[in-house]
Amino acid sequence: MGQDVVPQSAEIASRVAEERLRESEEHLRLALEAGQMGTWEWDPVKGLLKGDAAHQALFGLPPQDQPLPNEVYWARMVPEEIRMGVEKAKDALRNGTDIILQQRVLRPDGEVRWALFRGRPKKGDSGCMIGVSYDVTERVRVEQAMRESGSRLQAAVDLVRLGCYSWNPQTNELQWDKALKAMWGLPADAPVDYDVWRTGVHPDDLSRVEAAIQRCIDPQGDGLYDIEYRVIGKIDGRERWIATRGRTLFENNRPVSFYGIALDITDRKRIQSTLERRDEARTRELEEANRQLRSQIEQREFAETTVRQLQRLEAVGQITSGVAHDFNNLLSVVLTNTLLLLHSMRDQEDQEGLELIRSAAERGAKLTEQLLAFSRKQQLEPQLVDLNSKIIGMADLLGVTLGDTVHLKTTFTPNLWPALVDPTQIELVVLNLSINARDAMESGGTLTIETSNVVIEGEPSRPEEPVPGDYVGMAISDTGVGIPDDILPRVFEPFFSTKQPGKGSGLGLSQVFGFSKQSGGGVRIETRIGEGTSVKVFLPRAQTAAIDQEKDSSPATLNLQTKGGSNILVVDDDKSVLRSTIRMLDFLGYAATPAQSAKEALRLIASELEIDLVLADVAMPDMNGVELARAIRATRSALPVILVTGHSDLDSLKESESSSILKKPYTQSDLVNKITKALTSTTL
User: Fold this and answer.
1) Which residues neighbour 46 within 8 Å (Cβ) at sequence distance 6 or greater?
2) Among 408, 366, 387, 400, CA closest to 550
3) Where is average pLDDT lowest: 231-245, 474-488, 545-559?
4) Is there a contact between 584 and 558 (Cβ–Cβ < 8 Å)?
5) Is 511 in the same domain as 628?
6) Which of 180, 278, 500, 671 has CB 3.0 to 4.6 Å from 176, enough for a Cys bridge?
7) pLDDT at residue 306, rounded to an integer
8) pLDDT (average), residues 305-319
9) Does residue 296 fall inside a structural domain?
10) Which burial class, exposed, middle or buried, applies to 108 when counting CB atoms under 10 A from its CB (0-12, 13-18, 19+)?
């Protein structure tokens, strides 16, 4: 019986040794595969070197079972590095020590790779050396990138120093080598188990890693394990990245052994992260540059559009201003002679016809006033105006204008700033906008007038909008049909209208535009199709808290008690206007002397002719009325001058503060009051 035990024990021991050898070989093979290492054996005496498939592939050579002459390998290496490597290898053979070399390999396709060779003398007295080879090109490139970026980091991973582990899923027994323990921040003699491993994995990565392990030990899977994750050092608390590969051995469809290797890739990750951040920064810089370029292009396109719009409006303004001037001359002739005929006609039917002519001429005068408002050529008389009070005072007029189908709603801001505007013109603006709003609500609706204190900080986005500053705001809103996008850019053009023929002149909004910009403010339109339109007018804020008493804007009454005997010199290059003015002055009891040019007027003034007042047209060739007034002041400063204008060139009229201004077309009352005021001021 004892004799039977010994063979059985020997057999068991032999099987255990074979199992351990098999595990060791599998462990080594797995490590070599995971580390992508080749093996080689070199006989310096015979000058032969034999490498496995991985080693041959490193040199770009096909697999070879037989050893090859040294020259085959030397031909693919740098000569200086060969001599240095051979000398070190021979020293290692003589001294029985290990050798580590890092050298370049020149492949047949021209690619240069870096290889790490690690060897030691072969046991026995063969004089040969065995070792492993490893492609470290990527590591070298990383090191070069680190140097180029100024980093002093060094490659933290010795790619041939791998941490190894084994795990028995059945018993949960875990074994680590020293290198792997160092990655976990553990001493070399520290015991390890599954809990030690588990608590060292970064909490954010733990579930992902455990899921990968479960797939690896699943009999239905391929048994492979390949993952990168973070660990937290047990002692120093340092966060490290490791890359680990493993493989499961199965027996009877059960996982009995799990082998693997681990590699510290912390610095590689850090470098990758740095490069990624650098790429992200460059991407952000590129995106920002593109954004700025797009913004500049948009700003340029907007500026070009604005300039074109302003140029177009300015051109239209110049044309309308010229038309208004000529039209005013014609209307002056019509109105003057109509009024004179009304005094002489006795037949009622003839008087009715003349009244129709006078009424039509006055409507024409109103039209020219609107044209001048758009072209910003009108003469404004800005005053301190309480906009709330002004709108309240127009309540009855607005009620009659809007009719029964439109509900008027007002919202007034308390403590409203005073506005510096022409009170008569602001009434026309309110009336025009209210009429437009009424017409936009065909079946009736709600018209809302709001006032507000407005501080604008941003630059205008359209030509009609105000520049930054403090404004008194007025918004007139309706619940009408709204304005289509293709029409909105044209609404401020004179004579542009969406109304049916005969329903409007198309000058309402153009007058609002001209008045608001000439006053130093602006206008803005907000509209939505089917919901309504809001026109917001911005008027300049007066720099005072007091509201002065507004001037009486009612028409002056006709004072027929003229200062008889006064001789008035009338200067106008238009013969019809000149003759009509002379006739009216004669009718009013004045002595009148005509002059068709400024030069003729100066000759008459220089003569012995007694002249009490000069009535001169502003727009004349050669020398205009302003220049004539300046010449008269130089020789006869006491001689009063009244400038008559249908154009109102504001820049030139600013120089004539001492002269009265009479706008064409004018009534008898306007003419008499201007003359009386001028002669009375001279007498005083």
Assistant:
1) 67
2) 387
3) 545-559
4) no
5) no
6) 180
7) 60
8) 60
9) no
10) exposed
